[in-house]
């Protein structure tokens, strides 16, 4: 339980000004308040502390008592500490330094975190970044629980109290093995894959998104395999176990098996996934959080314009 003091910081600041000027009239003028307000504050302090702080000399000003000298010394220390705290908090809003924890959706992490961390390290060397990788629900829970200041997520739904600042979007693509009859075409309708076995990236929100795309096109998927691992899904496809739908495209077609998985542009009208930097709506963004958002926005823009 927080301590409760019998006087206020305002009353203490009035005392410090009186001790500096040794004159209530001069102190009230410096503080831009009525002299009666200063006099009342000093009287309240003396009653609260049970000791006189000044000897009042009629028309000659004030003299500090020993109790007043002690309070003045400690009050200055209190105000110095408060000023340091205020400056530190303001610096957090203006300077990119200190530590920030970033939660990231697990399938996005390999594509954005290494490049993002490198950019932040080069441009903001005094910033320390810790990361948490999880599914959508886990990253939002990290925000709500105070374990992360920002989260990098796909925007699947709108959550109460969470603000999503969209930094880019990625359309889905179909993934087939290198010997698939459609592999050399570069693009295909999902209706052309309807008879193939389907390999599902089985994360809670991703699952609903991918299955929703197929339902929207009237495709009933022949769901044969599922995995919560992005690379396991790619490897399953590469070995001929079926096709899949994904959003992020690696720069290589090789998988862990040594076989290749080929991305096909989907010719049907399908919804893209938006990527956002998310934070608690009630939280004022720090300079650290703004730097993460700015660097990620630039990173995605560069990736989407690269040949």
Automatic annotation (TrEMBL):
What GO molecular function annotations does the UniProt record carry, in alphabetical order?
DNA binding; DNA-binding transcription factor activity
* HTH lysR-type domain sequence ranges: 7-65
Pfam families in the record: HTH_1, LysR_substrate
Query: InterPro entries under this entry?
Result: LysR_HTH_N (IPR000847), LysR_subst-bd (IPR005119), WH-like_DNA-bd_sf (IPR036388), WH_DNA-bd_sf (IPR036390)
Gene Ontology CC, one term: protein-DNA complex
Q: What UniProt keywords are attached to this protein's entry?
A: DNA-binding, Transcription, Transcription regulation
**Keyword Transcription (UniProt):** yes
Q: Which family does it belong to?
A: Belongs to the LysR transcriptional regulatory family.
Q: Which PANTHER family match?
A: HCA OPERON TRANSCRIPTIONAL ACTIVATOR HCAR, TRANSCRIPTIONAL DUAL REGULATOR HCAR-RELATED
Q: What is this protein called?
A: LysR family transcriptional regulator
Source species taxonomy: Bacteria, Bacillati, Actinomycetota, Actinomycetes, Micrococcales
